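Weekly structure sync, notes
Attendees: PL (lead), two postdocs, one rotation student
Agenda item 3: pending single-chain targets
PL asked that the sequence for the first pending target be pasted directly into the notes so everyone works from the same version. It is reproduced below exactly as submitted, 453 residues in total.
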Amino acid sequence: MINNDTFVIIGGDAAGMSAASKVRREQPDREIIVFEKSQYTSYSACGIPYFISETVKTVDELIVRSPQKFRDKFNIDVRTEHLVLEVDTDSKRIKVLDKTKQLEFWQDYGQLLIATGGKAYCPADMKGYDSENIFGISTLKSGINLEKYIENVKPKTAVIIGGGYIGLEMAEALLIRGLKVSLINRGSQVMNTLDPDMGEIVSDAMRKLGVTLYLGEELVSFDVEDNCIKAIVTNKQSIPTDIVVLGMGTSPNTAFLKDSKIELGVKGAIKVNAHMQTNIADVWAAGDCTETLHLVSKQHVYIAMGTLANKTGVVAGSNIAGENLLFPGGVGTAVCKVCSYEIGRTGLLEKELKKLGIDYVTGIIASKTRAHYYPNAKNITVKLLAEKNSGRLLGGQIIGEEGAAKRIDVLATALTHNLTLQNIIDLDLSYAPPFSPVWDPVQTAARKIINEI
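Predicted structure, written out during the meeting:
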């Protein structure tokens, strides 16, 4: 018999545990069960590259709350090493595999939250995808496995496949660990979340750091020997390596929902409304397994970000607990760091604006992070994109050194509230020589292109 009060969560990281904690605060006596396929809950996946580089010394520093703490302090029944295989929305139950006992069972639910996150993309039909020296950095366990491999095997070379955020951050981590790092990217520049002219700046910076880039090349196969990848075969050459790191992006972990009647959308992510409800009654979803409404394009997109995972988890938990909270969407803001270089982006790219048929203008400026005469002023490049007639900001990208990337937050705020270039120029931003030129670089960029509006 179904307990209509039981709240079941699939996935025990950012979105799932944010929702569980919110429901527990509002409903102290409710039964909450969380099924997590790994042995860890509520950890910072974004911190994994810094654990591998040994900037973060222990894996425990990445764990916000352990499963035992959730059980003891919050009375949340967290069951680790439990993999959900199937969701039966007609009978309101899920099929679960207890991995430690190799035992399958059905669990009834009154309300269900799916928070299974994303997974590192790897072509599963390619021989060698499960070799012992290939690592997809999407879970804490995968990060621990790579760290142990580096410690035990002492690899000398690494090939990173993909030039996105994870690829760049892992390049930094492995450089710090003393490996010779190569990176393969099928695009003409790294970071397809930047326009090509800005991506070229990042590519040049990575070469200066000692990373060998193979641009415009695609993975064809792995050269495998004794369950170990010996070389990466591209459409142009074979590259020997000791370890392989996957940085080809993240896909939503939703394959197990195939027969659930839960509607999927972009890239197989779960479709949800602003309350984080799915098309099935009493079923919610949050985090990296869901779609997000892009506030600039007004289209649904797939964005795997820890910030959105935490926010959508709180929204889902609030509504499950009987409140009325909406998640408005996002603008695709992200930052990353490669050694001394910082990269920030938000909003839409030129290729996206062209696809949407939006008439736009763009401009790039080079400036300094501090007053030009102040010691250690660093270079910063800012690119803005704005609507041709209205001057409404549509996107922005920033590349520079210390003090550069977090300026993207000004542009993210402007995008969220539909500000124009003139609005940005009029902002009363802070100024002192150690922090900024008298005209902040984002305002200088706005001033440059406003005359084209």
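Discussion points:
- The chain has three domains: 7-46+62-118+251-320, 122-248, 342-450.
- The mean pLDDT is 95.
Action: rotation student to compare against the earlier draft before next sync.
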